[in-house]
Design the sequence.
């Protein structure tokens, strides 16, 4: 059964209240938000129109009171379907003044300092020249948001977890059908295309992310687009997906041997699953991201250069903490993360496995269907 | 027959040479580029991994000599498959220094001033705090890129036009199959999902953008996600897509009457097509974007508040000029644009039609299969 689409207004009000309490503690009068995940988190404004770079979108979150949306007129009807009442629009794109005066006015009504997410994983989605104009026009002080938005987003509500679980279930069903699309001889590009089709058939709203690779000794990386090279017997095929249901991502992968598996593939896969289980054992409230990294890295016998072995997940494919030796973020119940161990199989060739979990007061709950130690063979 | 994937190295060298000649004229020592379309335009680096916000990516384009890629190590293998030789990596995400020192060093080798795209439609895809650190660490002057990158991208090569034509042909075939998926009674959300499936079946690499709406008097906007409301006899259904083939978008829509059409729907559709034809007549080198807007707006009897009636298209769903009363951009052969007239059908309800064309020395060439004046009926 599908969870409900959208959230109750109370969920948004709780998110705003949490941010506002931190803003008051940090002495910030307002937050200025400009990116899709930031706006959606506080308003529920969900559209694929962000694909167009032509227009900036702004949300002003005051330390007290309701948010103010300052947006292109083309978004007014959709924003009016959310819980946001104060919606101010202009006819974007406007070459003379693309919302800057309207935004400055909204900010001046509230005052400063204005917090803007400025740290790792953030960016400002408006033209730099307009940001400078905004500073001059408003006369306000602008500073970092002190990580407030990222901090709020890191701990998910039960409703959010339900949506991520739904995305994971959809991808799990698509992976279960992989033997329909990946026999030997089929081009990898065709497999990618058909895998997206399976994800849609199984209920994904859309498929923002698919990656993967194939080869007898693993694959070169986990970010390349598919080539037209055909799958061969003896290849290991990896597919990784961020499919979306109601705006929430899954992010996990699966490996499949094509026709038959090799001893190295089987051993590598078993080791990756072993690392996942070590991660599951360690994933408790109070543990740090670097602690999870350590137990997995020990199983894999890898060092810091192996990169991150997992990350936060939710409104974005990756968000929040990184499972690295450096990251001392403390796990809390409600955090949704990936466990993503990887191993070098041969020079320049790797295998990677990934699962999605939610931290609870006890053992973590699996959101993706946990893979077993035996590498599946298809085709 | 499909065009070839990728571009010859000469195409990238020509793009760089064009930018460098403008940089020299403007007195810029380097450009700093941070976004997906900017990096891909000059390097060919094509991956869906940009969906993850965790890591910044940098390309430094000096006024003379070859570009320097300063990127996370996870991208090294893929970047090495492009024509770029100078690839410098760090183990991102690094909480201590996420590429800033490495980037500052690369820029200092070249000197300033450094142009950063800062105008309409651009943003800086790196944390603001790291940009400030970069300014301090490099000691260089940073300024706007004078629109150089946008200017280069606006005029497409024949190879680029071939890829956009391929995307348009794919979407055209998917639209031709719409009667398979949109009978009365099917939920709009199901139609959206199945339309994405059709696009993939017809050859799209992926489907970054789908929008649409339905109703007896048109739809509320062109950006909302699909609801679960079922299509009804007498609705007009609009679907709009940005499907991608080898990194290039189409962006056109189609309207269909469900079961039967109404007189208002038919008349509105005919008027929209009439406006498209007026746009086609006016779309000649030397005409300005505002001239195209004017001839279409006259047919539609709309004023400036109607918003833009088309835009540039290519590596992004929307890029470059806007067909508005303000935009005085002069059309040149090789520009790919959309003609996108819209009309209000009833209070808060609209109909929109869109085609994709390329400006040539003579009459524009249609890239999307030009719709006729009669509103098609399906279901």
Sequence:
């Amino acid at each position: 059964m599908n969870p409900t689409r959208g959230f109750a207004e109370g969920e948004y009000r709780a998110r705003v209240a949490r941010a506002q309490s931190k803003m008051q503690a940090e002495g910030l009068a307002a937050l200025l938000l400009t990116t899709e995940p930031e706006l959606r988190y506080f308003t529920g404004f969900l559209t694929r129109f962000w694909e167009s770079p032509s227009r900036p979108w702004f949300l002003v979150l005051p330390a007290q009171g309701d948010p103010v949306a300052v947006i292109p007129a083309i978004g007014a009807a959709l924003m009016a379907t959310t819980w946001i009442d104060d919606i101010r629009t202009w006819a974007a794109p406007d070459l003379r003044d693309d919302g800057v005066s309207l935004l400055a006015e909204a900010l001046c009504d509230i005052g400063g300092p204005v917090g803007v997410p400025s740290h790792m994983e953030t960016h400002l989605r408006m033209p730099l020249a307009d940001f400078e104009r905004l500073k001059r026009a408003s006369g306000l002080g602008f500073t970092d948001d002190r990580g407030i938005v990222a901090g709020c987003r890191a701990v998910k509500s039960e409703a959010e977890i339900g949506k991520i679980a739904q995305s994971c279930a959809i991808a799990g069903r698509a992976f279960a059908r992989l033997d329909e699309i990946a026999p030997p001889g089929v081009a990898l590009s065709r497999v990618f295309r058909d895998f997206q089709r399976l994800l849609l058939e199984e209920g994904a709203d859309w498929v923002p992310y698919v990656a993967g690779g194939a080869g007898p000794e693993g694959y070169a990386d986990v970010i390349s687009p598919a080539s037209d090279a055909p799958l061969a017997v003896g290849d290991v095929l990896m597919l990784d997906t961020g499919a979306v249901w109601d705006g929430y991502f899954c992010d996990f992968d699966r490996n499949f041997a094509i026709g038959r598996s090799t001893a190295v593939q089987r051993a590598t896969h078993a080791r990756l699953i072993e690392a996942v289980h070590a991660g599951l054992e360690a994933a408790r409230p109070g543990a740090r991201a670097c602690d999870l990294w350590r137990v997995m890295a020990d199983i894999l016998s890898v060092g810091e250069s192996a990169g991150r072995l997992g990350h936060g997940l939710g409104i974005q494919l990756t968000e929040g903490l990184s499972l690295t030796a450096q990251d001392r973020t403390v796990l809390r119940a409600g955090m949704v993360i990936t466990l993503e161990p990887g191993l070098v199989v041969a020079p320049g060739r790797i295998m990677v496995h990934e699962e999605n979990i939610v931290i609870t007061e006890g053992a973590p709950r699996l959101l993706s269907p946990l893979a077993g130690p035996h590498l599946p063979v298809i085709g």
About this structure: The two ends of chain B are 31 Å apart (CA to CA). Residues 263-282 of chain B form the longest helix (20 residues).
